[in-house]
Design goal:
The complex is a heterodimer of chains A (335) and B (344). Helix content of chain A is 29%, strand content 22%. Chain A has 335 residues and is α/β, with parallel strands linked by helices. Chain A has one domain: P-loop containing nucleotide triphosphate hydrolases (Rossmann fold, 3-Layer(aba) Sandwich), CATH 3.40.50.300. Chain B is globular, with a radius of gyration of 21 Å. The chains are: A alpha/beta (335), B alpha/beta (344). Chains A and B meet through α5, α6, α7, α8 and α9 of A and α7, α8, α9, α10 and α11 of B. Chain B: This is ABC transporter ATP-binding protein.
Amino acid sequence: MSEPVLAVRDLVKHFPVTRGVVFRRTVGQVRAVDGVSLDLYPGETLGVVGESGCGKSTLAQVLMRLTPPTSGTATFEGEDLFAKRGAALTAWRRDMQIVLQDPYTSLNPRKTVGDIVGEPFDIHPEVAPKSDRQRRVQELLEVVGLNPEHIRRYPHQFSGGQRQRIGIARALALRPKVIVCDEPVSALDVSIQAQVLNLLSDLQREFGLAYLFIAHDLGVVRHLCDRVAVMYLGSIVETGTAEEIYTRASHPYTQALLSSVPVPDPSLRGRREAVRLEGDVPSPADPPSGCRFRTRCPKAAPVCAEDPPALEVRPSTDHPAACHFAEPPHLVRVE
Amino acid sequence: MAAPLLEVDDLRVEFGTGPETASVLNGVSYHVDEGETLAVLGESGSGKSVTAQTVMGILDTPPGRITGGAVRFRGEELLGAAPERRRLLRGESMAMIFQDALSALNPVYTVGFQIAEQFRFRRGMSRRDAMARAVEMLDLVRIPSAAQRVKEYPHQFSGGMRQRAMIAMSLALDPELLIADEPTTALDVTVQAQIMELLDELRRERGMGLILITHDLGVVAEVADRIAVMYAGRIVEQTDAASLYAHPAHPYTRGLMDSVPRVDDLGRGAGAPLRPIPGLPPSLSAIPNGCPFHPRCAYAVDVCTDEVPPLREIGAGHRAACHFAERFAAEGPDRPATQEVISR
């Protein structure tokens, strides 16, 4: 396999919890991301799934250099990502772009579509000479399936799905190698969501993009991703190819997640004996000792409270999972 | 035959005036029986929430305007009823829960106070007795250590617990009909599963009618008895859950099913493109002539642009508003069946 374009090792991001106004003191840490390692290869889609508060969006922000990490390393094409400063940082930003979740707040309402999609060229004038800019913007609009004539319209004149296309055009402008997609379709209606997902696959094929695809919708991730990492409370609990995760999930959390997703097939009603989790996700400011998942885990044993399980392949499984009792799921055939 | 629990008959609602008038509901009819779950399925702007608001009598008028139709609760016409009567029915006979529990709860009162309020004003209980009942209600929706939790404020609850608290509040006066407007959309899947199970159980125990408003085809498949699919302020298809998924008769219903990437999808295979519905839903102030779905429909022919297809019976209890509904229903869906499911 080729070299990863993005390699992340033991990434940690803690946010301090403070008390007091004048004498501000730190009383704790929110462990938003707590030791995440992953590799993203050129042209592939790596899905990061997890429930709200698991740290997947913080991970995206740290990797985009929007907030500094607490510790850990990341390399982009072999170069230290967090050491980049000044011109090197600006130059790197051409290679890695982001598409945000909410198409209503991620576009400036006072700018025209032409200004929004053309803004990357203002910051990186070497990419397109000024005279060429309008043509480039119109090309981009066409690529994402918008009418190039609409270059002078404002975001409010577009629907949610069209706005998300504008956000994608903006991310594509500098011909990046990696696009971080932070829940790009979760705000859209299903029929529109499918249009945007197809667009993302087409663009990947056309431009050889690698996606770090962050989502909570397991159906969407299965459809789009080559490999999947499942996050729970700041760390990755299971990782593997989409096939491995969706047919042979071995971590009890992944199994519970998969069996909680309602399947649009009424004939299965009553035949699925789903793995149900009790309670809510614990606070990342005060995570449980040992295995983070043990408080909700149907398999929890005394060892889980003491010994945090490593993310590794175990005898009965074919891909890494962070569970002492990882084993393939109990599958029931449905005729 | 006795009157159904709730009957919505040819309901029409408009917003705004002049050329900007948006026809939000264009003749919506459905009914719910006791102990039954009716799912109203549709995308944003299809009118599913406006129908529910009109039923509850909480539609803002203006800007909304009810231009026709009837809402009957156990045979009693509600649209012309006095506000006092409707107020009495709300809570006692019909109740509603909303998508965003945080903004539906009052942040400056404790959760217990907000539940107890109903017992004090409607049942004339003392503060102490009402609070004791509020604890029972929180227990009923399985909030752990309810006696302590009752004194907390909404912001101290997690998303799933807030939704439980809202369910407790809506069930306090033992209504016969519960309308749940996207109750789990804001929640994570594991919590969504808990809440849907709870709702289903409470409905069964109390023999309540439940209207579940949602856009999620998966949730609908798990709990609905009957399903009404809405598009552009109309019901385009209505039938029991099993036949809707096995014989979708309206191209819009089929389109929705083809658009959803499924977690169990083994047949389609990774990378194969989804088949989305092309285009956008119509603007409600300029609904197309003929069938409102025809600009997005792959099967549209001349008759579709000229004639509005009526919602008509195409099989036992199966109604669809498409000129060619019989053909589509006979074809069945174009997707592989589920093969394996994870079990305990």
